[in-house]
Amino acid sequence: MRHTIRFYVGDECHTLAHTPPTRTLLDWLREEQGRTGTKEGCNEGDCGACTVLVVRLEGDRLVWRAVNACIQFVCMLDGAQVLTIEDIRAPDGTLHPVQQAMVDHHGSQCGFCTPGFVMSMVAGRKAAGLAQDERGIDDMLAGNLCRCTGYAPIVRAMRHAMEAGPDHFDAMAQDMAARLERLRDGATVEISGPTGSLSIPATVDGLAATMQEHPDARIVAGATDVGLWVTKGLRVLPHVVSIGQIPELRRIEHRPDGLYVGAAVTWQEARAALADVLPQPDEEVFRRIGSVQVRNAGTVCGNIANGSPIGDGPPVLIAAGARLHLRRGDVRRSMALEDFFIDYGKQDRAPDEFVEGVTIPVPGPDTAIRAWKVSKRFDQDISAILGAFSLTLAPDGRIADIRIAFGGMAATPRRASHTEAAMRGRIWDEPTLEAARAAMAMDFAPISDMRASDWYRRTVAANLLTRLYADCGPEGARAPISVQAACTGRGEHAHG
C-alpha cells in the first residue's frame, strides 16, 4: 500500500500526498509549477492549447501520448512522465525539429495555440500507427485549434518535421525507461484528506473490493467526460477511483466469441483491432471520436458506462451484437449491450458494480456493417445523429438478419425494432426500403435541441436507410426516394 502518487515532470520527480483527487493537470502545472507555456483555452478538451505529452513504460517500450491537460486529473499520472513545452528543446538549447520547423515555415501567429500544436506534433513523430500523409497530419492536428487560421503553414511545418531525423529524446530513451521502471512498484494507492479520497487499485480484484467498500465512489479511466463534470459543471467528487493502469482491464484479446476490449483500453489503443473487425465503422465513426488527445485518454468502455445518448461508440457496437461484461464483488455477468441502457442517465448497473470489458463478435462473410456519423463539423464535433447497421443477406437476396441502432434519436442508444421487423425476411429491394423508411417513424420520436430539430433527425435517419441500400443493396441500386438533408459532416475540415 502506498499513500502518495509519484510521477515525473520533465526530469523532476514529484511525490504528492495531499493533491485533491480532481485537481487538473493544467491547473497544477500553471498554478503550482509555474509552467505557463501550457495554456488554458476552452478547459473542456476541445482546443488543444493545453496539450502535454504523457510518457509511460508499457512492457519494455516507451509510449508517447498527447493528452489534454485541462481534463486530466493529476492523480491519473501515477507512474508516468509528463513533458510540457518547457521540456521540448534540447539540453544545450537547440530547438526541437518541430520547433525549428514552426519557425522556418512561419507556423506561429499570435502564439497562444503554438505550444499545444508543438506538443501534438512531437507526439505525432513518436506515435506508432499514425499515418504521415496529408490525412494523417489532419487527424494528428484535429484536436488543436488556431484562431488566427494559420493551419496551412502549421501543416507545412508538420510535414517538414516528419522528415527530420532523430531528436534528443531518442538518445534519452534508455534513461527515461529506467526512471519509469523505478516507479513501477505494483502497489495500490490510497489517499484520504480534507479535499477528498483517491484510490488506485493495482488489480481488478482490488477494484472489486474498493467498489464494494465505497459504492458511491466515481470510477475514472480517461476522464474525458468526467473531467467536464468538474471543469464545467463544477461538480465535487468526494472519492475518485482511477482504473487506467490496471493490467487486467487493459487487455485486447481475440477470443472464440469475438474481440474482447477491457475497460481501461483507450480508443486509440483499440482502433487497430476494431478496424480488423469493423473496418467501415472505424473509418466513418471511430476516427472521428474526439481528437487524438481525446482518443489517447478516453476508453471504449467509458463511452458505454457513462450512458450518453449521443456517444458514438455504443450504436455501432449494439448493431454489431456486442456483449457487455460487468462485475460486482466476485460475481460476473454479461448482457447484450442494448440491454444495459434503461433510460436517460440510467443503466443496468448496481452502485458497486463496474464494467469489466466488452466483446464484439466477428461478423460473418455475408454480413455487412455500416455506420455514419452526422454532425455539423467533420472534426471535433458531437453527433446530431449516428446510425449503425448490421445487414446479413441470404443467397436468394432476402434479409436473413438486420440490426439497426441509432444515437441521438432517443434518451439512450437504441435499436430500431419496428424497422428491423419491416425488413427481416424480405427481399432487399426498393419496396422493402420504402417499408423500412415508413417503419422508422414508429421507432423514434426525437427531440429538437441545439444540434438538430426532430424533423431533421427523422429525415436523416430515414435517409441513412437509403444510403445503406445504395451501399449494400443489389448491384447498381440507386436511391428511389428523394433524399433530404443527408449530410454526414463531410464538409470543410476543421483545418481546411
UniProtKB/TrEMBL annotation:
<dbReference type="InterPro" id="IPR016169">
    <property type="entry name" value="FAD-bd_PCMH_sub2"/>
</dbReference>
<keyword id="KW-0408">Iron</keyword>
<dbReference type="Pfam" id="PF00111">
    <property type="entry name" value="Fer2"/>
</dbReference>
<dbReference type="InterPro" id="IPR006058">
    <property type="entry name" value="2Fe2S_fd_BS"/>
</dbReference>
<dbReference type="InterPro" id="IPR016208">
    <property type="entry name" value="Ald_Oxase/xanthine_DH-like"/>
</dbReference>
<dbReference type="InterPro" id="IPR012175">
    <property type="entry name" value="Xanth_DH_ssu_bac"/>
</dbReference>
<keyword id="KW-0560">Oxidoreductase</keyword>
<dbReference type="GO" id="GO:0071949">
    <property type="term" value="F:FAD binding"/>
</dbReference>
<dbReference type="Pfam" id="PF01799">
    <property type="entry name" value="Fer2_2"/>
</dbReference>
<dbReference type="InterPro" id="IPR036318">
    <property type="entry name" value="FAD-bd_PCMH-like_sf"/>
</dbReference>
<dbReference type="InterPro" id="IPR002888">
    <property type="entry name" value="2Fe-2S-bd"/>
</dbReference>
<keyword id="KW-0274">FAD</keyword>
<dbReference type="InterPro" id="IPR036683">
    <property type="entry name" value="CO_DH_flav_C_dom_sf"/>
</dbReference>
<dbReference type="InterPro" id="IPR005107">
    <property type="entry name" value="CO_DH_flav_C"/>
</dbReference>
<dbReference type="GO" id="GO:0005506">
    <property type="term" value="F:iron ion binding"/>
</dbReference>
<dbReference type="GO" id="GO:0004854">
    <property type="term" value="F:xanthine dehydrogenase activity"/>
</dbReference>
<keyword id="KW-0285">Flavoprotein</keyword>
<dbReference type="InterPro" id="IPR016167">
    <property type="entry name" value="FAD-bd_PCMH_sub1"/>
</dbReference>
<dbReference type="GO" id="GO:0051537">
    <property type="term" value="F:2 iron, 2 sulfur cluster binding"/>
</dbReference>
<dbReference type="InterPro" id="IPR036884">
    <property type="entry name" value="2Fe-2S-bd_dom_sf"/>
</dbReference>
<dbReference type="InterPro" id="IPR036010">
    <property type="entry name" value="2Fe-2S_ferredoxin-like_sf"/>
</dbReference>
<dbReference type="Pfam" id="PF00941">
    <property type="entry name" value="FAD_binding_5"/>
</dbReference>
<dbReference type="InterPro" id="IPR016166">
    <property type="entry name" value="FAD-bd_PCMH"/>
</dbReference>
<feature type="domain" description="FAD-binding PCMH-type">
    <location>
        <begin position="190"/>
        <end position="365"/>
    </location>
</feature>
<dbReference type="InterPro" id="IPR001041">
    <property type="entry name" value="2Fe-2S_ferredoxin-type"/>
</dbReference>
<protein>
    <submittedName>
        <fullName>Xanthine dehydrogenase small subunit</fullName>
        <ecNumber>1.17.1.4</ecNumber>
    </submittedName>
</protein>
<dbReference type="InterPro" id="IPR014307">
    <property type="entry name" value="Xanthine_DH_ssu"/>
</dbReference>
<dbReference type="Pfam" id="PF03450">
    <property type="entry name" value="CO_deh_flav_C"/>
</dbReference>
<dbReference type="InterPro" id="IPR002346">
    <property type="entry name" value="Mopterin_DH_FAD-bd"/>
</dbReference>
<keyword id="KW-0479">Metal-binding</keyword>
<dbReference type="InterPro" id="IPR012675">
    <property type="entry name" value="Beta-grasp_dom_sf"/>
</dbReference>
<feature type="domain" description="2Fe-2S ferredoxin-type">
    <location>
        <begin position="3"/>
        <end position="88"/>
    </location>
</feature>
